[in-house]
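Protocol step 4 of 5: obtain the predicted structure for the target chain.
Materials: sequence only (see below). No template structures provided, no constraints applied. The aim of this step is simply to have a reference model before the mutagenesis design in step 5. Sequence pasted as it appears in the construct record:
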Amino acid sequence: GRKYNQRVHTTIGPPQPPKRHPRPTKSPLPNTQGWNGPQKAEQLNDTSTEDKPDPNRL
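Step 4 output (C-alpha cells):
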C-alpha cells in the first residue's frame, strides 16, 4: 500500500517540472493580460452599448 503511494508521488513528479516552466512564462503573461485587460473591458463596453441600442430600437 505504501509502495503504491510512492508510485503516485512519482506520477505527480513529472507534471511538476512542466508546471515550473509556466511560472516564468506567467511573469510576462501579467503584462500581456494588462494589455488585454483594458482591451477586453472596452470590448465589454462596446457590447454593452451595442446591447443598449438594440433594446432601445425595439
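Step 4 remarks: The radius of gyration is 23 Å. The first helix runs from residue 2 to 12.
Proceed to step 5.
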